[in-house]
Design a protein that fits this description.
One of its GO terms (cellular component) is cytoplasm. A probable RNA-binding protein. This protein has 78 residues and is α+β, with helices and mostly antiparallel strands. It is built from three helices and three strands. It has a three-stranded mixed beta sheet with strand order 1-2-3. Strand 1 and strand 2 (30-36) form a beta hairpin.
Length: 78
């Protein structure tokens, strides 16, 4: 559910919504969501000074039942 919500929010922000991928995993300290977007959209997802990424974390954290971690992954980095 959290992955679907994050994916829906990010698809509305980016220019290439078909490239958005969210992978959900459970960890000891809560849920872990890994967000991958087109490299051209990375700046849109992060935003100025990280404001957009912080807002996405706040919204997803509000609907989560426990702690959740969201990582935006640069697809060029391995």
């Amino acid at each position: 559910m959290l992955a679907d919500a994050l994916e829906h929010l990010v698809r509305g922000i980016v220019d290439n919504p078909e490239d958005v991928q969210v992978t959900a995993r459970s960890a000891r300290r809560g849920d872990y969501l890994e967000l991958r977007v087109n490299p051209a959209d990375l700046g849109r997802v992060i935003g100025r000074s990280g404001r957009t990424a912080r807002a996405l974390r706040t919204v997803v954290g509000a609907i989560a039942e426990g702690p959740v971690r969201i990582d935006v992954v640069d697809v060029d980095r391995r």
